[in-house]
Design brief:
Elements lengths: L1 E12 L2 E14 L7 H21 L4 E4 L5 E5 L20 E5 H12 L7 H6 L3 H4 L17 H8 L14 E7 L11 H5 L3 E5 L8 H4 L5 E4 L1 H4 L2 H4 L9 E4 L5 H9 L6 E3 L12 H12 E7 L23 H14 L5 E3 L2
Helix pairs in contact: 1-12
Keywords: Glycoprotein, Glycosyltransferase, Golgi apparatus, Membrane, Signal-anchor, Transferase, Transmembrane, Transmembrane helix
Membrane topology: Single-pass type II membrane protein
Organism: Theobroma cacao
Length: about 350
């Protein structure tokens, strides 16, 4: 486990405890590093501030201290009715989930200071970037023999691979990331969402007929593989036809064909992101990751799931099966409560 030397200030923001985290560097492994009294105090403040935030905003969640100041367990009330079952094991989803705050902050800082769009510059800078990495971003890339024919790989990536990053860290001021939770229908956030400098949406979430709840402005849209294969339908979701489309997986020949032949004039890119762990690979998390890279402050709408929900609800369709709603809700709570004051906040 890697440890951060942290300078931390606990402050109040809109009456809610928030945390300001200043990262001054990474140390060696925890057990081999001599932490000063100031370091220990900073780590203790990190955990204490986090626990207060979860208690105030977690809809019943509590953050319990772990074996050190980095480890916490987010726990739901014991009477929570967990209904989601793992389709492979049949086991009911648990009510407690362990997180490492220090590793989360380290990954966060990495995202805050880097680009999250795949570029040719990035591939060229990697040792054997074309042979060892580029083919992984192409559907059925394993058949390309590690891009021995570099020209062929370049051709397949050409429509989604800019030479240099099209966006820089913290390029935009205020950003809203819109999830798909059915809870969005409980509050009319439309006008508020449209007031942001940038609005980021996910997959095939519609705007038409829901503008009073989710707004009509849309700057970026993060896409999983299924949505990306329907690019022709996705571009119709934004009436301005100016959304930037960011695919989190691979480029597919079907996508390239649509871009060329329809044609699709929206910018289309591939996501280049950090790893937030096996429990956090969803499109919503990647949308937040992208926002953290290009925005000064990020507000989250539609990322809630109340204790007892069987699965994530959607504001535009039936509930989506196959998720872990309680784990996901706990993860997003961790992100909100680790957010420096004003940088990340959940609105619904």
């Amino acid at each position: 486990m890697r440890i951060l030397q942290l300078g931390l200030l606990v402050a109040l923001f809109s009456g809610v405890a928030a945390i300001l985290i200043y990262i001054t560097g990474l140390s060696n492994r925890y057990e081999n590093h001599q932490l000063s009294g100031e370091d220990w105090e900073a780590l203790q403040s990190l955990q204490s501030g986090f626990q207060k935030c979860v208690s105030a905003n977690g809809l019943g969640l509590q953050a319990i201290s772990g074996k050190d100041y980095c480890q916490v367990t987010l726990t739901y009330p014991s009477d929570t009715d967990s209904k989601w079952r793992d389709p492979n094991t049949g086991e009911v989803e648990g009510l407690s989930f362990e997180f490492n705050l220090c590793e989360a902050v380290a990954t966060w800082e990495q995202v805050r200071n880097s680009t999250t769009i795949l570029t040719r510059e990035f591939i060229d800078a990697l040792p054997n970037g074309w042979e060892e990495y580029a083919w992984r971003r192409i559907n059925k890339g394993v058949l390309l023999n590690h891009c021995k024919n570099k020209a062929l790989c370049m051709e397949k990536l050409s429509l989604v691979l800019p030479e240099t990053p099209p966006y820089v860290p913290r390029q935009f001021a205020r950003c809203a990331v819109i999830g798909n939770s059915g809870d969005l229908l409980k509050t009319r956030f439309g006008k508020e969402i449209d007031s942001y400098d940038v609005v980021i949406r996910e997959n095939g979430a519609p705007i038409e007929n829901y503008t009073e709840y989710v707004g009509k402005k849309s700057s970026f849209r993060l896409l999983n593989r299924g949505s990306a294969k329907a690019l022709d339908k996705v571009v119709e979701l934004d009436e301005t036809r100016q959304e930037v489309l960011i695919i989190k997986t691979t480029i597919h020949d079907i996508m390239s064909q649509m871009i060329r032949e329809i044609p699709i004039r929206n910018p289309v890119y591939l996501m280049l992101g950090a790893s937030f762990g096996s429990a956090a690979k969803g499109t919503g998390l990647k949308a937040l990751e992208f926002a953290l890279s290009v925005c000064d402050s990020v507000d989250m709408y539609g990322f809630t799931v109340d204790p007892g929900y069987k699965e994530w609800t959607r504001y535009f369709s039936e509930s989506r099966k196959g998720h872990t709603p309680l784990h996901g809700r706990a993860y997003y709570q961790m992100m909100e409560c680790l957010g420096p004051s004003g940088e990340v906040a959940a609105k619904s």
